[in-house]
Amino acid sequence: MEPTAIHVPVLADEVTHLLRARRPGWMVDGTVGLGGHAERLLDASAPGARLLGLDGDADALAQAGARLARFGERAVLRHGSFRRLGSHAAGAGEAESVLLDLGLSSYQLEASRRGFTFQGDEPLDMRFDATQGPTAAELVNTLPEAELARILFEHGEEPHARRIARRIVEARASAPLRTTGELVAAVKRGVPRAAWSRRTHVATRTFQALRMAVNDEVEALRDALPQAAALLGRGGRLGVISFHSGEDRIVKRTFRTLETDGFGELQPSPVVPQREETVVNPRARSAKLRVLQRLEAA
User: Fold this and answer.
1) How far apart are CA 267 and CA 253, in angstroms?
2) Count of CB atoms within 10 A of residue 258's CB?
3) Band of pLDDT at residue 297, cut at 50, 70 and 90
4) What is the average per-residue pLDDT within 228-240?
5) What is the Cα 131 distance to its own chain's centre?
6) Using 50, 70 and 90 to split pLDDT, how confident is the model at 88?
7) Is the pTM of this model over 0.70?
8) Which residues contact 94 (CB under 8 A, 6 or more apart)?
9) Which residue in 169, 202, 233, 262 could disulfide with 94, CB within 3.0 to 4.6 Å?
10) Maximum CA pair distance of the chain?
C-alpha cells in the first residue's frame, strides 16, 4: 500500500453541518474511504457520539484507521460493503446519521494501481474490494459486444458505446486487454477524433461505466438505501453524495418513495459544491448531496 496524497472530501462543510450528531449516538459512514468525512463529523458532533465506518477497500480502510486513531473507541471501522449495511450495523442502535459517498478517493485514483485512472498504464482491475468479483479485464475480454455496449451506454452515458465495444472486441481478438493503456487505445479508435472533448478525457465515460459494472454499484446502491433509512432514529438523517445522473435518479426516487413511510427530504433540490470548492477540487464538479430525514413526529 502506497501513501496517498492529501485527500479532500467533497462537500465536507455541507456534510458536517447536515449530518453531524447533535446528541450522543451512532453515525454511520458506509463509504469511509480515507476518513475525511468521518474525521470532520466526529470533530463536530456531540460529546459521546461515535462513528461506524465501512469500506470494501482494505487498503483505504487501513489509512482511515490511522487518520481516525485519535478518536479511540469513538471510531469503529469494518471491512465490508454498504450493500450489507444493515448487518454490519446490527446491534449498534439507532443512527443519528448515515452517509454514503459514491465517489472515488484520491488513493484509489492516484496510488491504488488498480486501473481506476487512465493517467498511467495500470492493470485493468477496478475492484473496490480486491478480494472479490471479476476484474475489468475479465469483463472487457469475455463479455459479448452487445453487453459491453449496454454497459457503456447505461452506466457511462457514452454516445459512442457501440463503436467502442466493437473496437474492444476487435482488439481482444488479437490479444487480451490487460492494462488501462490498452483499453484507452481501443476507446480512441472507437470515438471519432472530432468528437473528443477538450474538457474531459475521451475514455472518461468508458472507465466510469466499467468501474460501475465491476462493482455492481447501481444494484448495491438500490440495496443499501432502504437499509440505511431503516437505521435512522427519530430526526436522524441519511445523506448520499452521487456523481452520476443515474445514481442521483435512484436516490431521488427512493427518497420520494420513503416519504410515505415517515421520512422527508430536507429540500427538493440537491446540495451542490460552491464555485470555491470546484476551483480547489475539480473532481467535486458533478457532486450532488441529497439528505433524507426521519420525521420526529412519525
Assistant:
1) 14
2) 19
3) low
4) 97
5) 18
6) very high
7) yes
8) 25, 26, 231, 232, 233, 234, 236
9) 233
10) 64
For 289, the grid coordinates are 448531496
| Residue 187 to residue 177: CA distance in whole angstroms | 12
Q: End-to-end distance of the chain based on CA atoms, in angstroms?
A: 46
Partnered with residue 52 across adjacent β-strands are 28, 76
User: Strand 75-79 to strand 50-55: parallel, antiparallel, or no bridges (unpaired)?
Assistant: parallel
Evaluate if residue 119 carries a pLDDT over 90: no
Count CB-CB contacts under 10 A for residue 174: 7
Strand order in the sheet with 50-55: 75-79, 50-55, 26-29, 95-101, 232-242, 288-294, 263-265
Say what the pLDDT of residue 7 is: 65
Q: Say if CB 158 and CB 152 are below 8 A apart.
A: yes
> Which amino acid is residue 133, in one-letter code?
G
Q: Which segments of 90-243 does DSSP mark as H helices, in order?
A: 106-110, 136-142, 145-156, 161-174, 180-190, 204-214, 217-231
Residue 115 backbone phi and psi in degrees, to 5: 80, 25
**What's the rounded Cα separation, in Å, for the pair 241 and 54?**
16
CB 4 within 8 A of CB 111: yes
By the 8 A CB rule, do 247 and 217 touch?
yes
**Structural contact between residues 215 and 134, judged by C-beta atoms closer than 8 angstroms:** no
Residues ≥6 apart with Cβ < 8 Å to 150: 161
| Closest to 115 in 3D by CA, of 133, 128, 101, 102 | 128
pLDDT tens figures, 26-72: 999 999 999 999 999 999 999 999 999 999 999 999 999 999 999 99
Sheet strands (E) in the chain: 26-29, 50-55, 75-79, 95-101, 232-242, 263-265, 288-294
3-class SS of residue 150: helix
